[in-house]
Each structure stands twice: as C-alpha cells, then as structure tokens.
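Hey, I'm writing a tutorial for new members on how sequence and structure tokens pair up, and I'd like a real worked example in the thread rather than a made-up one. If someone can provide the structure for the chain below, I'll link this post from the tutorial.
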Amino acid sequence: MSFTIAVAGKGGVGKTTLCGLFIQYLCEQGKRPVLAVDADANSNLNEVLGIDVEMTLGDIREEMSKAEASGNSQIPVGMTKADYMEFMFSRCLAEEDDYDMLVMGRSQGAGCYCYVNGLLQAQLQKLAPNYPYVVVDNEAGMEHISRGILPKVDMILLVSDCSRRGVQAVGRIAQLTKELGLKPETMGLIVNRAPEGRLNEGTMEEIEKQGLTLLGVVPQDAEVYEYDCAGRPMVDLPETSPVKQALHSIIDKLKI
C-alpha cells in the first residue's frame, strides 16, 4: 500500500512551494516513484516542479460537458466511452523519471466540481497502489479529504505563515480532520516564512491554543521570492538554500 501525505493550508503561505520541495527530497532519498497530485483548483504545483502539464481532469470535464451540450460526440468511431475516457485520463498523467503528476485543474464552466472530484477519486484509487508514496497538494478547505476522494491519509502536514490568522486557519483544518474521523499517523504544523527562522511569543501562544504539534520552522528567504518573480522552478534552488535545509531537517525527523 502507498503512504499518503496530504499538504494543506490557506492560500498564500507557500504551501505549494514546500509541497514541491518535499516531493523533490523524497525522490532524492530513494523514495521513488512518487505520485504527485495537485488537488488545488488554482493549480501551480507543476510550475514549482518545473514540468509542463498537457491536460487536467478539469479540462476533460469541460470537453465532455461541451460535447454533450452541442450533441457532438468526441468519442472516435469504434471506441467505447470507457476506452476513450481511459485514453483521456492517460493524458492527464505527466510522467517524469522519479515521479508522476496528476492535476485536477479548475472547472471553467457553470457546473460544480462534483464530476471532476469523482474523476480524481477514481484515478487515485487506481493509481495509488503503484506508488510507495503519494503526496497531495490540497485546497485550504481540505475538500478532497472531506469528500473521501483520497483512499486514505497517513500524514497531514499543515502549512502556515507565522501570523496568528494563518495558525488559526490550520487549526480549523486540524479540527475538520478530527470531525471527519480521520486518524493519520502524523499530523503537524510547519510554519513557513518566519523572519530569521524564529517565531515570536504571540505565534507560539496561538499554536498552543490551537493544540497543534509544531514540526518545524522554515525561514523567510529572499531567494525564493526572486525565483518566483523570474518564473524559475523552486526545485532548482541550491542545496544551500535555507528553505531547503530547514525542510529537509523536518522531513528527516519525520522518518518517513
């Protein structure tokens, strides 16, 4: 069975950057192949990893919806709908040497995400057993966990900045996992973008108030900002990067 790691936090805290670096480090440590899943509708995990994505599950949803509305079937003559869907799904899986990536993408139409969520659930159930590790970049609301889309969750990494509001947001996510009856082996907090890698008393008080386990602190780093502005993949950060070093130390302590 695969070991599933879900990464979650509110938008703008650097969650996807840390998720991408997490995937890179797992691969470097021989934990490959990894299935990377971008389950955030505002998907950009592929940009952090520096790969192109041909198609997303959301794209399939839009194509099928438009075809049904117009009455023009997209299915080639002689091919069943099931075979055609499998062919389309295969285009959503970006294959790299050490990891593969599946992107949910966002729905552009008026319909809800239910159909796309169903596609994601079916694909994960089929693909996950082929990988020792599955790393999922989730939306802040953990919709994919609450809807039971992930087959199981072994570890939940909550990412926040060093603000009280950020810590409160992940505190609510932690509470949601308990209400859903999820029992991950590990659930803890990683605080990102901390000045000089340190937390003040107010932030520490809020972490204790929310009952969160602090796994580690990742420092603010101007180089990450420069890479982002230049459109460079975060995985290309040098090994001497304070962000990489701090995250690697946290992962090593987790003993995944």
